[in-house]
Amino acid sequence: MQFHDLGLVVVDEQHRFGVEQRDALRGKGKQPPHLLVMTATPIPRTVAMTVFGDLETSVLDQLPAGRSPIASHVVPAADKPHFLARAWERVREEVTNGHQAYVVCPRIGDEEDAPKGAAGAAKKKSPEDEAEKRPPLAVLDIADQLARGPLRGLGVEILHGRMQPDDKDAVMRRFAAGETDVLVATTVIEVGVNVPNATAMVIMDADRFGVSQLHQLRGRVGRGSAPGLCLLVTEMPEASAARQRLNAVASTLDGFELSRIDLEQRREGDVLGQAQSGTRSSLRMLAVIEDEEIIAEAREEATRIVAADPDLTRLPALRTALDALLDEEREQYLEKG
Question: What is the span of the domain harbouring residue 226?
Fold first, then answer.
């Protein structure tokens, strides 16, 4: 599809789109349109591009009108199981007070969804290894356990991506109407779900989710006049990197601060390529977060040099180095959203 006179492209929830997808939208017009990308949690590559000066940024650091603060806590289910019992008590309390709750799981729970077991020689594993090897908790299993156990007597329904569209719509309609107390779901509720009466969220195996995803998920609560509560359940040991990541998420509601944490952990990927995160970085002697001031100074110097000598005729060695670094494909990525 091509537009006759496309002047502006707005990409909401930018972190859910790939580099090529965003660039394809920009190519829908005869001339390159203006581009506005929006997200509560910028992906690592985007944070890197703001540091390098390829994006102008505007930060909205206030809650939208009608929103309430969200309290977030890590629930260590392995070493303190009574904390998980208390989490389900809190869900009951919210329902008793006339509100509703989400329970989020990483997996649906049917056979096709189950991870394959790893073969190999048996060896002693650390608690962190054991937690990572255990299959992620699943919607179908958890919903049944809750309905028979700690949430017995409450209206519990499930929602996941393999349900028929009409069935999903019916479940969401009942939940939005207040007919369901607890919705056990996968990340299908991550965006586009607005139920102001839902005040509590329990994220099972929270360590299986990324920083940005956790922040997006907890944004489903606290959307009305009552404060929100988000409980991050994990079996990872206290000293593990995963546990520290969850502590960071629980400590702030600032999506941009969380994106910087995400960048530190996942790296920025290749700003001259398709990878949006990961250890494959274009940088060899710099780290985006630690060397932000150096990168800013380098950007100013580069701007000055190119303005005075666009073809770098007076700096042949720099021209040669750039030609060696940028083939046609990598050069094109400089212009991609």
Answer: 70-253
